[in-house]
Amino acid sequence: MAQGSEHPEGGCGGMSAAAPPHCGDEYLGETSRETLLESREARTSGWTHYCCHAVRLLLLSSHGVCILAVSSSLDRLDQASWWLIFLPVWLGDALCVLLIVAAWFASCPYIRLCVMERQPRVGNHPSILTEVLPEIFFAVLGFLFLVLAFTGEYFLCAYLDSEQRGEPRSLPAAATLLGLVALLAACHGALFTHSSPLYLLGGGSLFLTVVLFALTRQASPGARAAAVVPAALAAAGLAAAALLRLKGFLHVLNREERVLRLLE
Protein backbone atom coordinates (compact mmCIF):
# COMPACT_ATOMS: atom_id res chain seq x y z
CA MET A 1 0.00 0.00 0.00
CA ALA A 2 1.49 3.35 -1.01
CA GLN A 3 2.30 5.73 1.84
CA GLY A 4 0.38 9.07 1.69
CA SER A 5 2.05 12.43 1.46
CA GLU A 6 2.52 14.35 4.69
CA HIS A 7 1.24 17.60 3.15
CA PRO A 8 -1.70 17.88 0.82
CA GLU A 9 -0.77 18.20 -2.80
CA GLY A 10 -0.59 21.75 -3.99
CA GLY A 11 -0.22 23.23 -0.44
CA CYS A 12 2.15 26.10 0.21
CA GLY A 13 4.18 24.10 2.73
CA GLY A 14 4.50 21.00 0.54
CA MET A 15 7.62 19.92 -1.25
CA SER A 16 5.73 18.97 -4.38
CA ALA A 17 6.68 20.60 -7.61
CA ALA A 18 2.97 21.19 -8.18
CA ALA A 19 2.80 23.84 -5.43
CA PRO A 20 1.10 27.00 -6.72
CA PRO A 21 3.58 29.70 -7.65
CA HIS A 22 1.57 32.44 -5.90
CA CYS A 23 2.70 31.20 -2.43
CA GLY A 24 6.28 32.30 -3.02
CA ASP A 25 5.03 35.58 -4.46
CA GLU A 26 3.02 36.25 -1.30
CA TYR A 27 6.08 35.62 0.85
CA LEU A 28 8.24 37.88 -1.32
CA GLY A 29 5.55 40.55 -1.24
CA GLU A 30 5.41 40.52 2.54
CA THR A 31 9.20 40.67 2.74
CA SER A 32 9.38 43.57 0.31
CA ARG A 33 6.67 45.45 2.23
CA GLU A 34 8.61 44.99 5.48
CA THR A 35 11.82 46.17 3.80
CA LEU A 36 10.04 49.21 2.35
CA LEU A 37 8.54 50.06 5.74
CA GLU A 38 11.96 49.68 7.37
CA SER A 39 13.61 51.90 4.76
CA ARG A 40 10.95 54.58 5.23
CA GLU A 41 11.51 54.64 8.97
CA ALA A 42 15.28 54.51 8.57
CA ARG A 43 15.21 57.54 6.27
CA THR A 44 13.98 59.64 9.19
CA SER A 45 17.22 59.03 11.10
CA GLY A 46 18.74 62.33 9.94
CA TRP A 47 15.63 64.50 10.03
CA THR A 48 16.34 65.83 13.52
CA HIS A 49 19.82 66.87 12.41
CA TYR A 50 18.44 68.53 9.28
CA CYS A 51 15.88 70.49 11.31
CA CYS A 52 18.52 71.71 13.76
CA HIS A 53 20.83 72.70 10.91
CA ALA A 54 17.98 74.59 9.21
CA VAL A 55 17.32 76.45 12.48
CA ARG A 56 20.93 77.68 12.61
CA LEU A 57 20.87 78.81 8.99
CA LEU A 58 17.49 80.50 9.32
CA LEU A 59 18.46 82.26 12.55
CA LEU A 60 21.61 83.71 10.99
CA SER A 61 19.84 84.67 7.76
CA SER A 62 16.94 86.45 9.46
CA HIS A 63 19.24 88.49 11.69
CA GLY A 64 21.45 89.30 8.72
CA VAL A 65 18.42 90.65 6.85
CA CYS A 66 17.51 92.72 9.92
CA ILE A 67 21.01 94.25 10.00
CA LEU A 68 20.68 95.11 6.30
CA ALA A 69 17.29 96.70 6.99
CA VAL A 70 18.80 98.83 9.77
CA SER A 71 21.71 99.94 7.57
CA SER A 72 19.38 100.84 4.69
CA SER A 73 17.23 102.98 7.03
CA LEU A 74 20.01 105.01 8.67
CA ASP A 75 19.13 108.21 6.79
CA ARG A 76 15.48 108.08 7.98
CA LEU A 77 15.87 106.14 11.21
CA ASP A 78 14.00 108.75 13.25
CA GLN A 79 10.83 108.18 11.23
CA ALA A 80 11.20 104.43 10.65
CA SER A 81 9.15 101.89 12.59
CA TRP A 82 11.41 99.62 14.62
CA TRP A 83 8.73 96.94 14.75
CA LEU A 84 8.79 96.74 10.94
CA ILE A 85 12.59 96.83 10.82
CA PHE A 86 12.64 93.86 13.21
CA LEU A 87 10.06 92.00 11.11
CA PRO A 88 12.67 89.58 9.64
CA VAL A 89 13.70 88.71 13.19
CA TRP A 90 10.11 87.99 14.27
CA LEU A 91 9.48 85.81 11.22
CA GLY A 92 12.82 84.04 11.56
CA ASP A 93 12.32 83.34 15.27
CA ALA A 94 8.80 82.00 14.65
CA LEU A 95 9.98 79.63 11.91
CA CYS A 96 12.95 78.56 14.06
CA VAL A 97 10.60 77.66 16.91
CA LEU A 98 8.46 75.55 14.55
CA LEU A 99 11.52 73.77 13.16
CA ILE A 100 13.09 73.10 16.54
CA VAL A 101 9.84 71.67 17.91
CA ALA A 102 9.59 69.51 14.78
CA ALA A 103 13.14 68.31 15.49
CA TRP A 104 11.93 66.71 18.73
CA PHE A 105 9.69 64.30 16.80
CA ALA A 106 11.22 64.13 13.31
CA SER A 107 13.33 61.02 13.99
CA CYS A 108 10.80 59.22 16.19
CA PRO A 109 9.99 56.58 13.50
CA TYR A 110 13.69 55.68 13.33
CA ILE A 111 13.93 55.51 17.13
CA ARG A 112 10.90 53.22 17.17
CA LEU A 113 12.53 51.02 14.51
CA CYS A 114 15.73 50.73 16.58
CA VAL A 115 13.73 49.82 19.67
CA MET A 116 11.85 47.13 17.73
CA GLU A 117 15.15 45.78 16.36
CA ARG A 118 16.77 46.10 19.82
CA GLN A 119 19.76 47.77 18.20
CA PRO A 120 21.24 51.24 18.80
CA ARG A 121 21.43 51.75 15.02
CA VAL A 122 20.07 50.19 11.85
CA GLY A 123 22.52 49.68 9.02
CA ASN A 124 24.74 52.68 8.37
CA HIS A 125 22.31 55.14 9.93
CA PRO A 126 23.26 57.15 13.04
CA SER A 127 23.05 55.67 16.50
CA ILE A 128 20.11 56.77 18.59
CA LEU A 129 22.25 56.68 21.76
CA THR A 130 25.19 58.79 20.63
CA GLU A 131 23.68 60.97 17.88
CA VAL A 132 19.90 61.15 17.60
CA LEU A 133 18.81 61.35 21.24
CA PRO A 134 21.59 63.81 22.26
CA GLU A 135 20.58 66.06 19.37
CA ILE A 136 16.95 65.95 20.50
CA PHE A 137 18.10 66.89 24.02
CA PHE A 138 20.04 69.87 22.70
CA ALA A 139 17.05 70.82 20.54
CA VAL A 140 15.03 71.15 23.75
CA LEU A 141 17.75 73.40 25.20
CA GLY A 142 17.80 75.26 21.89
CA PHE A 143 14.09 76.01 22.31
CA LEU A 144 14.84 77.69 25.65
CA PHE A 145 17.71 79.56 23.97
CA LEU A 146 15.33 80.85 21.29
CA VAL A 147 12.82 81.97 23.91
CA LEU A 148 15.55 83.97 25.70
CA ALA A 149 16.77 85.47 22.41
CA PHE A 150 13.26 86.42 21.31
CA THR A 151 12.47 88.02 24.67
CA GLY A 152 15.71 90.01 24.63
CA GLU A 153 15.06 91.18 21.06
CA TYR A 154 11.52 92.14 21.98
CA PHE A 155 12.73 94.30 24.87
CA LEU A 156 15.42 95.81 22.63
CA CYS A 157 12.85 96.71 19.97
CA ALA A 158 10.54 98.12 22.66
CA TYR A 159 13.41 100.28 23.96
CA LEU A 160 14.25 101.60 20.49
CA ASP A 161 10.60 102.37 19.82
CA SER A 162 10.13 104.11 23.18
CA GLU A 163 13.34 106.11 22.68
CA GLN A 164 12.03 107.24 19.32
CA ARG A 165 8.98 108.63 21.13
CA GLY A 166 11.18 110.29 23.78
CA GLU A 167 10.37 107.82 26.59
CA PRO A 168 13.28 105.36 26.74
CA ARG A 169 12.71 102.22 28.78
CA SER A 170 13.42 98.46 28.90
CA LEU A 171 17.13 98.75 28.07
CA PRO A 172 18.41 96.97 31.24
CA ALA A 173 16.12 94.00 30.60
CA ALA A 174 17.19 93.77 26.95
CA ALA A 175 20.90 94.09 27.80
CA THR A 176 20.65 91.42 30.51
CA LEU A 177 18.80 88.89 28.36
CA LEU A 178 20.96 89.42 25.27
CA GLY A 179 24.10 89.22 27.40
CA LEU A 180 22.87 85.89 28.77
CA VAL A 181 22.19 84.66 25.23
CA ALA A 182 25.74 85.67 24.22
CA LEU A 183 27.19 83.84 27.23
CA LEU A 184 25.24 80.65 26.45
CA ALA A 185 26.34 80.76 22.80
CA ALA A 186 29.99 81.20 23.81
CA CYS A 187 29.74 78.30 26.28
CA HIS A 188 28.26 76.08 23.57
CA GLY A 189 31.10 76.98 21.22
CA ALA A 190 33.72 76.27 23.90
CA LEU A 191 32.26 72.88 24.83
CA PHE A 192 31.47 71.56 21.35
CA THR A 193 34.38 72.24 19.06
CA HIS A 194 32.72 71.05 15.82
CA SER A 195 30.74 74.32 15.73
CA SER A 196 33.07 76.56 17.72
CA PRO A 197 33.49 79.35 15.11
CA LEU A 198 29.74 79.86 14.73
CA TYR A 199 28.90 80.06 18.42
CA LEU A 200 32.08 81.75 19.67
CA LEU A 201 32.01 84.45 17.00
CA GLY A 202 28.23 84.83 17.21
CA GLY A 203 28.19 85.04 21.00
CA GLY A 204 31.19 87.37 21.10
CA SER A 205 29.77 89.70 18.47
CA LEU A 206 26.42 89.84 20.28
CA PHE A 207 28.09 90.68 23.59
CA LEU A 208 30.22 93.42 22.00
CA THR A 209 27.17 94.79 20.21
CA VAL A 210 25.26 95.07 23.49
CA VAL A 211 28.23 96.80 25.18
CA LEU A 212 28.79 99.23 22.31
CA PHE A 213 25.10 100.00 22.07
CA ALA A 214 24.91 100.75 25.80
CA LEU A 215 28.01 102.98 25.64
CA THR A 216 26.93 104.98 22.58
CA ARG A 217 23.19 105.31 23.15
CA GLN A 218 23.57 109.02 23.95
CA ALA A 219 26.08 109.66 21.16
CA SER A 220 25.57 110.79 17.57
CA PRO A 221 23.97 108.47 14.99
CA GLY A 222 27.35 107.87 13.39
CA ALA A 223 28.85 106.72 16.67
CA ARG A 224 25.85 104.49 17.38
CA ALA A 225 26.30 102.84 13.99
CA ALA A 226 29.52 101.33 15.38
CA ALA A 227 27.34 98.81 17.22
CA VAL A 228 27.00 96.80 14.00
CA VAL A 229 30.77 96.50 13.50
CA PRO A 230 31.08 93.31 15.66
CA ALA A 231 28.45 91.60 13.50
CA ALA A 232 30.41 92.44 10.34
CA LEU A 233 33.63 91.16 11.92
CA ALA A 234 31.86 87.96 13.00
CA ALA A 235 30.59 87.39 9.44
CA ALA A 236 34.13 87.85 8.10
CA GLY A 237 35.46 85.46 10.74
CA LEU A 238 32.89 82.81 9.83
CA ALA A 239 33.82 83.10 6.15
CA ALA A 240 37.52 82.73 7.01
CA ALA A 241 36.82 79.71 9.23
CA ALA A 242 34.80 78.08 6.43
CA LEU A 243 37.64 78.62 3.95
CA LEU A 244 40.18 77.16 6.37
CA ARG A 245 37.95 74.14 6.93
CA LEU A 246 37.55 73.70 3.19
CA LYS A 247 41.31 73.90 2.73
CA GLY A 248 41.75 71.05 5.20
CA PHE A 249 39.33 68.89 3.20
CA LEU A 250 40.68 69.60 -0.26
CA HIS A 251 43.06 66.62 -0.33
CA VAL A 252 40.20 64.14 0.25
CA LEU A 253 37.42 65.75 -1.79
CA ASN A 254 36.82 65.21 -5.50
CA ARG A 255 36.01 68.02 -7.89
CA GLU A 256 32.22 67.88 -7.45
CA GLU A 257 32.50 67.88 -3.65
CA ARG A 258 34.86 70.87 -3.77
CA VAL A 259 32.36 72.82 -5.86
CA LEU A 260 29.56 72.00 -3.40
CA ARG A 261 31.73 73.06 -0.46
CA LEU A 262 32.56 76.36 -2.16
CA LEU A 263 28.87 77.00 -2.86
CA GLU A 264 28.06 76.23 0.78
Automatic annotation (TrEMBL):
Transmembrane parts of this sequence: 82-106, 136-159, 171-192, 198-215, 227-246
UniProt xrefs under InterPro entries: TM_Fragile-X-F-assoc
Keywords carried by this UniProt record: Membrane, Transmembrane, Transmembrane helix
Top-rank lineage group of the source organism: Eukaryota
Pfam families reported for this sequence: Tmemb_185A
Protein name: Uncharacterized protein
The species this protein was found in: Alexandrium catenella
UniProt lineage: Eukaryota, Sar, Alveolata, Dinophyceae, Gonyaulacales
